[in-house]
Amino acid sequence: QSALTQTPSASGSPGQSVTISCTGTSTNVGGYNHVSWYQQHPGKAPKLMIYEVNKRPSGVPDRFSGSKSGNTASLTVSGLQAEDEADYHCSSYAGSSWVFGGGTKLTVL
Amino acid sequence: EVQLVESGGGLVQPGRSLRLSCAASGFTFGDYAMHWVRQAPGKGLEWVSGISWNSGSIGYADSVKGRFTISRDNAKNSLYLQMNSLRPEDTALYYCAKGRHLVLMDCFDPWGQGTLVTVSS
């Protein structure tokens, strides 16, 4: 069982927006602004998409955005594209350690 | 271009040991924290261990504490994970990941392609 809770699956049609949530506790998500999101295509290594709750690394489209409220962080993908179909993993610093969610499989219909 | 290349994985019997290595290039290795993250087949990601730029701060997941040891050699641009008393539940693809800054608090970017560890009799 993962320390952070993500819904196993999400879906949307091309052009739509989808939001994936990640729920933790005050000892991880709620206690630090070091929440990050990773995209993982099948057979590939994870790729950083969002860090420090809502910051995008260079090269990540602005269709990807992050937010946090209390113990829950969210990743929103706007203007869905076929290449966004992947697994998305959230992660949070937890004081000398890191925890992950179980991952959300995003399907583009 | 940042490159992280893991090696050392393989098939090992329960209770035995294995040492993973990660060769880094394309950046000043000694300026960044480094991490090991694993992914069991068909499962999510699990942070295993992290080490700060100067080895002054080290962390482990509870699941590996006392069995695994992380280390680094900044002169050789290399990260290591010594895994002892291996269990079947340690079976996973082990990724080496670069931290964004010096300390453990920052996230993982980028990741290597991973090395597979299978623990089975």
On the 0 to 100 scale, the average pLDDT of chain A is: 96
Q: Report Rg of chain A.
A: 13 Å
Please name the two chains that share the biggest interface, counting residues whose Cβ lies under 8 Å from a Cβ on the partner chain.
A-B, 23 and 25 residues
Strand count, sense and closure of the main sheet of chain A? 6 strands, mixed
Order of helix and strand elements from N to C terminus of chain B = EEEEEEEEEEE
Total of helices of chain B:
0
Walk me through the structure.
- The complex is a heterodimer of chains A (109) and B (121).
- Chain A has 109 residues and is an all-beta fold.
- Chain A has strands at residues 5-6, 9-12, 18-23, 35-40, 47-50, 64-69, 72-77, 86-93, 98-100, 104-108.
- In chain A, the strands form two sheets. In chain A, strands 2, 4, 5, 8, 9 and 10 form a six-stranded mixed beta sheet that branches. In chain A, strands 1-3-7-6 form a four-stranded antiparallel beta sheet, with no helix packed on it.
- Chain B is built from no helices and eleven strands.
- In chain B, the strands form two sheets. In chain B, strands 2, 4, 5, 6, 9, 10 and 11 form a seven-stranded mixed beta sheet that branches. In chain B, strands 1-3-8-7 form a four-stranded antiparallel beta sheet, with no helix packed on it.
- The mean pLDDT of chain B is 96.
- Chain B is globular.
- The relative contact order of chain B is 0.31.
- Chain B has strands at 3-7, 10-12, 18-25, 34-39, 45-51, 58-60, 68-73, 78-83, 92-99, 108-111, 115-119.
- Chain B has 121 residues and is mainly beta.
- Chains A and B meet through strand 8 and strand 9 of A and strand 5 and strand 10 of B.
